[in-house]
Design goal:
Length: 101
């Protein structure tokens, strides 16, 4: 029984850090618009709904809905792409709430 619990805990820890990696990646993608200033706002309009959908898929329940809403708005507003919405949501989910996948 103890070995089974350890295996389950190991899988959830891997999933937790996989979610962190994805969150960091998606935040980096959201900040890519700073590399191409001419196309920044066009790319933000394309990335905003994609990031909102990804947040809804990655983080379930009210946390995902709220993060998707703020992520969508954050991507559409100019000069706030530096806010790491995905990573903040991960931190809230796995550190503050201490939720296990």
């Amino acid at each position: 029984m103890k070995q089974e619990q350890s295996f389950s805990s190991s899988i959830s820890e891997k999933n937790k850090f996989k979610m962190l990696g994805l969150s960091l990646l998606f935040d980096a993608i959201g900040m890519l618009s700073y590399l191409l200033p001419v196309f920044a706002e066009v790319s933000d309009v394309i990335w905003a709904p994609i990031s909102a959908i990804l947040l809804l898929i990655m983080y379930k329940g009210n946390v995902g809905k709220l993060a998707a809403f703020f992520g969508f708005i954050e991507e559409l507003l100019p000069f706030v792409d530096v806010i790491p919405t995905f990573t903040i949501t991960w931190f809230y989910t796995y550190v503050i709430k201490k939720e296990h996948p």
